[in-house]
Every structure is written in C-alpha cells, then in structure tokens.
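Repro case for the chain-ordering regression, as requested:
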Amino acid sequence: MISFDLSIANTKLTLDARKVIFWGNTAALFIADLHLGKISHFRKSGMAIPAAAATMNLDVLESLFIDYEPKDCYFLGDLFHSATNEEWFDFRRLCLKYNHIHFTLVTGNHDTKLVKYLNTSENDWLNRCDTFELHPFLLAHEPLDKLPENSLVGEQKKLFRLCGHFHPKVKMVGMGKQQISMPCFHFSEHQGILPSFGQFTGGCFIKVREGDRVIGVMNDKIYPIGLSV
Amino acid sequence: MTFNNWSKPALNWFEKNHWRPQVFQLEAWEAIYSGYSGLLSAPTGTGKTYALLVPFLLKGLSECNKNSAEGLQLIWITPIRALAKEIELSAQRAVEGLGLNWQIGIRTGDTAQNIRKQQLKSFPQILITTPESLHLLITNPSYPQIFKHLKGIVVDEWHEMVGSKRGVQMQLALALLSTLVPKLQVWGISATIGNIEEAADVLLGTYTEAEKRKWIKSDIEKKIDVHTIIPDKVASYPWAGHLGIKMADKLIPLILSSNSTLIFTNTRAQCEIWYRHLLEIIPSLAGQLAMHHGSMSREIRDWVENALYQGTLKAVVCTSSLDLGVDFRPVDTIIQIGSPKGIARFLQRAGRSGHQPGGLSQIYFLPTHALEMLEAAALREAVAENKVEARIPPIRCFDVLVQYLITRAMGVGFKPDLLFEEIKQTYAFASLSPEEWQWALLFIRFGGNSLQAYPEYAKVEVQDGIWLVTDRLVAKRHRLQMGTIVSDPVLQVKYVKGGFLGTIEEWFISSLKPGEVFWFAGQALSLVRIKDMTVQVRKSKEQKGKIPSWQGGRLPLSSELGTFLRNQIYALHNHENSLVPEIQALKPVINIQTLTSAIPRENEFLIESFLSKEGYHLTCYPFEGRLVHEGLGALVAWRLSKIKPQSFSIAMNDYGIEWLSDTPIDVDVNLLRQLFSVEHLFSHSRESIHSTALASRRFRDIATISGLLFKGYPGNHKKDRHLQASGTLFFQVFQDYEPDNLLLVQAYEEALLFQMEEHRMFDALKRIENQQILLKVCNKTTPFAFPIMVDRLREKLSSEKLEDRIKKMTLLLEK
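-- result from build under test --
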C-alpha cells in the first residue's frame, strides 16, 4: 500500500508513503520538515555524506507534483536546515518549473534565520506566514503540546492542527521480544503530526494515547497500525 | 669501538648500583649496538626498560662525547599516560648515571600548552609520548626538523596495541619516521602473546631492513597461585548475574590479612557497586579503601595510584584501568571478580602482585554465578599450561587511513605517489591497491568517489602537486577528532563550586532529574543542573542513589579460555574430577542440568528447545565467547528464516546462544545438521550480516575515526547540535547511496573478522560437524539456558513481511 485515506474533520485526507498528505478537496499538498541543505551543510563541515542523498529529496518532490497535480503546496516549517546553499537553488528551480502551484511556507524554528532573505523579491513565488488557516485546518510548524494554550486566538482553537517539527516515529512490540520502529503520521483528537520529509533526518518516539491514529511509513509503503486497548 | 668498550659505562653504572645485567639485557644492548631493530618479549618489572633505553644512551655517549646531542634522539611510546612519569624517572636515573647531558620530555594529552610550545623551540633528547600525541606532532609543519636526528623509537607494551587500530596508527607513524631517518632503529616491548612472531612483523613492517631484525626473549617466568572463592551453598547461588556481591563477606579476611589488595571488576558500574558495598560491610576500611576506573578524573586516579605506591591503601576496587601501569610494590593480593574472559588478562592482573624478583603472585577468583565456577577450574589449568591468547592485528583500516591522510596534509602536506609507497610498507596496508589509494584520495578531496553534484566538500587542496589542508577550521576540527579510541558522548561531572570528578555518559545523566542522587567515584552526589557539557553536582548525605553504568566494555571470552572451559564441561562425566573443589561445589547445579536436560560429552553438541510465556526458545552451547556466538546466532537464524518466513530475537552470552520466536521453531536432528553446517559459510555469513545490525554498529566507530561523524567541540555543546546525526542514519544513507564506499565495506569486513570472528566460527562449526547432535526438548529453563535468556542485548533477524509482523504487534499506550 502506498497511500491511505483518513477521515479527519469531516473531510478526506490522503496519507502518502512519501511522507506527505494530499487533501483532494482543494488539491493541496502538505509537506513537513524538508530540511533543505542538511546534507550539504554536513559536507561543508567536512563530513562526507553521499551528495546523491540530497538530490533524492527533490526527485521525490517532483514525483509528487506529477502524481497529485496540486494547486497549492504547503511546507509546514523547517524547509531549511541551516543556510541557503546549492540544494536551495535546485529546489527553487524545481518549484519555478511548476509555477502553476502556489507555494506557502509556514515558518519553522530552523527557518527564522532566513526570513529576511525569504522576504526579498527574488522569493516572491513563496508565500510566508507563521500559521495558516485553511478551514477546517490550521497549518503550523510545532505541535500543540509544546505551545501554551492561550497563544491560540478565537477561531484557531476550533481548527484541526496539521504540523511537523517532531519527526515522529513509532515503536511496536510483539511476542518473542519482537520490536519494530518506523517514521509515522500521528493523529490525535485535535491535531495531526506529519513525519519528516527530508532524507537523513532523525526522529523522536511518539507517546500514543487511547483514540490516537498512527500510520507508519517504511520502505516506500504505508502501514496503518492498530491500537490495542 | 668494540661492544665491550662501548658498553663499559653502562656496566660500571650497573655495578655501582649493585645490579647485574641480565642475559636478555646484554643481548638487547648488543643488538642495538649493531644497528638492529626488533622486539623484546619480557614480563613487566624485569628490567625491560633498561634493556632498550641504556643502549641508546650509550650511542649518544660514544657519538657526541658527553656533549648534549643535537635534537631529539629517542622516542619512547607508551600506550597509557600514567606510565610516562615512571619511565621519565627511570630515564632520568640512567642519564645521570651515565653522565649524559640529555633532557627528557613528556608529551601526552596531560602536557600543558606552555611546555609543548617550549619543546617545539628546543626539543629534548628523549621524548616520552603516546601514539596519539605523536600523530599530533606530525600535524606541526616543523616535524621534519624535529625528527631529523632521531636514532631510535621504542614502542612499550606493544601487545596492548598490536590488536587494535592504535597499532595501525603506530605503524603509520613508524613508516613515516623510518622514511625520514633511513637508519632508524625500531624496537618494541611485548608481554607474551599467542602470536608474538606476527606481532614483531606488524611492528617492523618493511620499513626496517629484513636482515637487521632480532627477537629477544627473557627467560624470566613468574610463579602464580590461583585460588577460587567457593560459596558455602552453591544450590542457593544465582544461576546468572555478574555482580557477585553475595559473596562479598568472603573477601573480608583476605583483605584484612593482606598488606594491600587490588580488587578487579569487569565494568565501571560493578566497580562503583563493590566499593560502596565493601565500605558498608567493613566500616574500618574507611580512608584505606579507594576506587579506580577510567571515567574518574585523572587527578583522583593519580592520587589513588600514588597512595598505592606509598602503601597507604589497604585495598583498591578497580577495572582494567589498573591492568597496566606502574608497579605497586606493596600489593600482595589480587582478587578477580567474575570471569576475566581471557587467560592473558588474568595473568596480567595476577602479575600486579608479588613484584619482587622471584616473588609469588597470588590471585583469588570470585565467580559471580554458579557456572562461572567451572571457569575457575579452566583458568587454573590454562595458567598451568601457560597458554595465552593471540591478538589479531587489524589490516586495511580505511578509517585510520583517511584520518592519517588529513593528518599528513596538515604538517607540510604530502605528494600522493611518495606517500603511497611509504604507507605500503606497513603491515596493515601492505595490500593496499592503487585503486583503493585513489578512492582514499578522492574521498578526502571531494568527499566521495566522484565529482558529485555539490562541491561544498573541500578538506584538502592541491597546490603544485602537494596535498594540503589550508582551512583553519578543518585543521582545528581534525586535531580534536584524531585518535582511534571511540567512546560514547560523555559529560563532565563537576562540583558547583568547582572540582572535576570525572566523566559520565550522556544517556545515563539525561535519565536523572535535578535533586536526584547518584553514586559516582564513590561519592553520593545530587544533581544540580546540566549546563553545556557539564553536570553540576553537590555532595549528598543520602545513602540511596542510582549507580551509573557505561556502555560497552564487555569483553568476550577468548577462544583459548573457551577451549579449557569446554573441556571442564566434558570432564564433568569423569568421576575422578568430582574431587576438584569447584566441581564438587557445583554438584547441585550439575544435577539440575542433568535432570532437566543433559551435560554434553566431548562427542556431543547440546541443543535445547522449550516453550515459555515469551515464546518458542532454542538454545545451544558452543562456549566460544559472545562475539562468535553473535555471528553463529545470526547465521543459524538466517538459515532458518530461508526455510519459512519467521522472526527471531537472538541473545547470547559467552557460553551459548538463544533463538526466540513468536512461532514454533521446527527443527529435528537432520535439519540442525544443516543449520550448523560449515558448507557455504563464507556466503551465508555475509548474507546474514546484511540482515542484522552487526555492521551498522561497527560503522559508528569507523565513521568517527574517519571524520564522517563530528562529535562537537568540547564545551560547545549546543552550537554543534545541527551537525550531529546518529551513526545508524549515516549507515543507512551510505547503504542507499554509496554502497561501494570503502568505509562501508570495511564495516562489513570488520563485522566478519572482529565481530563474528569468521575463522573462529569456521573452527567451531567444524568441531560441531564432528559431534553428535543431542537435541533435548525441555519442560523448563535449564541452568545452562538461564543466564543467556536474562541478557538484555539482543540481535534481530526476520524474513517475514512487514505487514504480517505488524499485524501481530501492539502499540504501547501512554499511561
């Protein structure tokens, strides 16, 4: 299985094994934590990670543009890892090639350093905001648990939050001391956390509560995971 | 000048001190007089230092007429910094005794910056240093001048280095020095090891002349008495465990009646626990009991060593950190808690007592679980036969090679063709091919085997054919990263008001909350805060607290000791042996094993199968040590998984292997024959390595040594966070994008050679092929199986579809 449909806030979201969500209603693509330039950043510091891993990110991105033909593409923060570099320019070239798509960046903690650069005219093609209301969703970078409740104003409280930041991973156990762990989508009552899109990014194990939905991703396949109660 | 005239001053000096040169000392003097290189094998405390130091002083004496010689004459390499001081004192005495006007300098990680600088201005004639500090010296552009007048280099305790990557590092330095100084005399000192001749070949490479080599042996042997501490009631002695604390009472009379005792434990955590416990049960030892392990600060350790030397301590609880080092003459008793895992280590530890010439070494062995009692009997036999392990020298370590290439690109840079010829003279890289050399060059220059998409990577520049590091940041980072000993990330433990106690691993301390109490270096400490890379603590009056543990450091049983142990098992059937005290004591456990399963005979290979709440178990007992069992465990699981889709969790200890599955493991004697067959071992072990995490774990160290992983600047924790990634991630990325990277290939090779110890696996399977398979279906866990099952470290292997596995699994819910 390479995609899985999930009903959230009375609408259908398509979870794709390439670690993104496609919302068919408005033809919107949601992508979290691309961490552009992480590999180049490591290489610049003398750590010889295969450069091919960096181009892989963009190949996958392009395949998504072709498969889903989105009208809008939302990056849920941490588009950048550190500074702009060759990876960024390749990324921009790719986005401009698909210039019928509207690109929006919901700024994440890694992006803040680049806000000034992103506001220059050469980056007009990329909208930028701190959160984005897209009824019935609120697009943000950080999950709710980490923010104080009162930071949300009025309407936003009622919206279903889609976010990233956490790089969620799930661990399962079975008889005979069996264990599996993999990156996952994590949906709870008020929010859904996307796995990190970027290659070569780590992750954190999630805490699962009753009623949560967990959908794992591994080797280009998607695995809805049943909960035992 | 004849040898007799030449050596006269030394003989006179010896006579003045009422010493008589020993035969091996005179042999060494003459060999060095005649320009030889070589290896001296002699136990500690027998005069090996003067065997090799004195002749180089004599050379100085005859060549420069007592005037101070120009520049550095002799380098003395020691694997541990703690020994440097003692060697300096011995050298000082000899220099004065012979009336030479020579300076002696120490240059190790402990040497102050101003002293290092001073040395660079005017180098001492004798330099005592470590392999790491020697390599750091090579990053200094003035190194060709420094080494210009060098006559000799002595590598002390070579047996400690030959089997590790430090040994490879040493070989590379020796090749460089021999190229700079064509007549350089290279000498090593080694304790007895199983492959001493190979150790000499590794040391001397092809950079020393084949006709100018000598191997000198001292004929001094040490007498060792081995005693076993036997529990009063074996029936109630635990079947598994590694602490041994239950028998602590038995140590009281030993400690009290001895002058000074060293108590060796196998891990630092065990050391902390024993120290606390001994203080509790013998309160009168307060002030006379100390502890010593590698994570305690140098300052505290120096204090302990000094007090031992002065004879003011009654006992010290220690780890391998005191295996080597200065002689503590007051020490007359050694206690080994738990299996020493190897015969050489046991002998070495025993040798830490009874230092007087002809003195008797006393060692007491305290088994930490019932079956270890057999190990005691095995050890005694091994000591009697004086059979010591071999240390396999690693070869083709590309991680050390790429690190060294950057090192050489720093100082004065290098020309690839010349350096290739130089490096090929080492034992480790004798088989380096031009293609592999090209790969290494491309790797340090472009960060990969081709000019890839992104050019950011540039450690080395090429100027007029010379390869150089020009970037100061690259150089700074490299100096911090150099070395071949990889440890887990550590934090410094300090009092709030200052005072450094030692280091602790990050994963342990992050499990504590401020205010919580833990025991470290024998003190109860309360955590105040963690700031940057420092754990700030206060002394606490609480008696209870967590005991830190440190990852790794669990040594596998050597194959030599394994053989002795197997023989002990077989001999259990021999009634004459039932009088051996250890075996007599073990009787109750042997009876249970016989009742629930069987004791294998020499022509039998025991395999047990049983069912428990956890699932279906299969166990076997090759007694080959943890690492070989890891390999065998993966191999058999892989072969099983080819028959039908199944998932295994594999556990092992030094005695045996356990396979655990959630579905029945269907085997009969015929199938077991195939599972343990030596046929296709070569290809099957390679395939099985790919389906486990063995290579991935190896890769972490390789990635660190080769500079792929950067551990961060000391005290600059946060800033480097965005440059950190786990070794597993690295491994995965290489696996996906650069599967032919030689560092990755090395991880697999190392897993086969050092982890699985393929040759030992082959021998073990050959042996099993000649045995009958004794398959026992048991109703419950046997005394043999129990210690394996409780082991936490498990390997996994599965041939089931992920979907199918997930279906059988559950998520743990947050409570």
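Ordering looks correct now. Chain B has a mean pLDDT of 88.
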